[in-house]
């Protein structure tokens, strides 16, 4: 049976992994483990198609350990026993356990002593947050690493590799992939390399050769094979980002109908990831302190949409899009942190006042650290006047509050009172 392209193109060594360079790049944690042959069990969590299985496969390939794949939900304790027996006979086995958040107690109790002895290097894969959904006994014996959606650049690298690879890829076919088709393939799959590669394989194998014995893959073919539509009739590569930009600017400008229109383009293209990420940015960047409750409701709506998926996920998102549009707006918090960051980046700051420096070690008092610090809770109203900023910027003002909404108006009054009390 012919395996899917995504399966055939799985890396066999660390250097072949696409993306996740914060984990597998030179000098990074997993790369160091492999190089030193000091593997420890781990949990990889993140969206589908982002490389969890690839990392496990590459670890096994780079260390020459046997590699086995099981599913915590569907495979039995007996399947685990087979892997354990193999480890006894041939040495360490790298076991990729998919859906590890669904591991029951019987299987867990069988695995734990094997992890302790190092007979099995467990690599758990899950799309769920392991800090919430995985048993503490397993968590305490593993390192937890988050994997992220691949960038369009990462996916393009993998696609080009697959088109060239004669043995495992599509190198035996003479394929011409148009620039718009490549652009759409790398962006519309939302960082899911598995979807991109399998869509590409379907496109190549279902498209007849032209008179020159070439297989021409254009945008319409990729759209059909991915079952997603390009966001723009002009088919240019900037369309994806143009829609996201127009979406944010419509909410910022309080145009409900325009915001719903651009959100619908993203929904129709299947790009739930970009939509929910941008909504959270909008909530905190453009609404912010003018309506903090709307920010919280945005996070709740996004979590609901993730659980529901499309098409049902559109409903909580529509609720919060309308609320954000009609909410008062303020970017004062973003402006404040950006101004403070600019001072730090340009070196426009001074020494931390001695009274604020750490005093929890022997000899700190001799250095004058923490000596003059006054504990606010010892004073009426739990406040006392003292200088917190370095001398060089003691009168700096980063936060410039606005009067947009009851919440920030109240925060402004409190901020100005305190600033005056500090003598600024």
Automatic annotation (TrEMBL):
GO biological process, one term: DNA synthesis involved in DNA repair
Domain of life of the native organism: Bacteria
SUPFAM superfamilies given in the database record: P-loop containing nucleoside triphosphate hydrolases (SSF52540), post-AAA+ oligomerization domain-like (SSF48019)
Keyword flag ATP-binding: yes
Leader sequence segment: none
Pfam families: AAA, AAA_assoc_2, MgsA_C
Limits of the AAA+ ATPase domain: 38-150
Keyword tags: ATP-binding, Nucleotide-binding
Single GO MF descriptor: single-stranded DNA helicase activity
Presence of keyword ATP-binding: yes
PANTHER family attached to this UniProt entry: ATPASE WRNIP1, WERNER HELICASE-INTERACTING PROTEIN 1 FAMILY MEMBER
Similarity section: Belongs to the AAA ATPase family. RarA/MGS1/WRNIP1 subfamily.
Protein name: Replication-associated recombination protein A
Higher taxonomy: Bacteria, Bacillati, Bacillota, Bacilli, Lactobacillales
């Amino acid at each position: 049976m012919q395996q899917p392209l995504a399966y055939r193109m799985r890396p066999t060594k660390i250097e072949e992994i696409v993306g996740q360079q914060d984990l597998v790049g030179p000098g990074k944690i997993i790369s160091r483990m492999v190089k030193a042959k000091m593997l420890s069990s781990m949990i990889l969590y993140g969206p589908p198609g982002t490389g969890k299985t690839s990392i496990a496969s590459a670890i096994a390939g780079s260390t020459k350990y046997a590699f086995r794949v099981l599913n915590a939900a569907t495979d039995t304790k007996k399947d685990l026993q087979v892997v354990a027996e193999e480890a006894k006979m041939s040495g360490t086995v790298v076991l990729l356990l998919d859906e590890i958040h669904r591991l029951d107690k019987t299987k867990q109790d069988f695995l734990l002593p094997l992890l302790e002895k190092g007979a099995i290097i467990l690599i758990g894969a899950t799309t769920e947050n392991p800090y919430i959904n995985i048993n503490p006994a397993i968590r305490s014996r593993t390192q937890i690493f988050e994997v992220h959606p691949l960038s369009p650049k990462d996916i393009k690298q993998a696609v080009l590799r697959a088109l060239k690879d004669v043995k495992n890829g599509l190198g035996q076919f003479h394929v011409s992939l148009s620039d718009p088709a490549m652009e759409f393939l790398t962006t519309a799959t939302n960082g899911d390399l598995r979807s991109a590669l399998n869509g590409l394989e379907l496109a190549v194998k279902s498209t007849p050769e032209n008179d020159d014995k070439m297989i021409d893959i254009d945008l319409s073919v990729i759209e059909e094979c991915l079952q997603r539509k390009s966001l723009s009739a002009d088919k240019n590569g900037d369309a994806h980002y143009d829609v996201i930009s127009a979406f944010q600017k419509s909410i910022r400008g309080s145009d409900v109908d325009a915001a719903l229109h651009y959100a619908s383009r993203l929904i129709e293209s299947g790009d739930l990831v970009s939509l929910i990420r941008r909504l959270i940015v909008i909530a905190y960047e453009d609404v912010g302190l003018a309506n903090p409750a709307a920010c919280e409701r945005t996070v709740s709506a996004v979590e609901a949409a993730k659980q529901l998926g499309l098409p049902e996920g559109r409903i909580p998102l529509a609720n919060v899009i309308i609320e954000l549009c009609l909410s008062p707006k303020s970017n004062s918090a973003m402006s404040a942190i950006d101004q403070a960051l600019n001072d730090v980046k340009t070196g426009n700051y001074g020494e931390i006042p001695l009274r604020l420096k750490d005093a929890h070690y022997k000899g700190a008092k001799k250095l004058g650290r923490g000596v003059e610090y006054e504990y606010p809770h010892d004073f009426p109203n739990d406040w006392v006047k003292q200088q917190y900023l370095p001398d060089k910027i003691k009168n700096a003002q980063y936060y410039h509050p606005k009067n947009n909404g009851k919440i920030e108006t109240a925060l402004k009054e409190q901020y100005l009172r305190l600033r005056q009390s500090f003598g600024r």
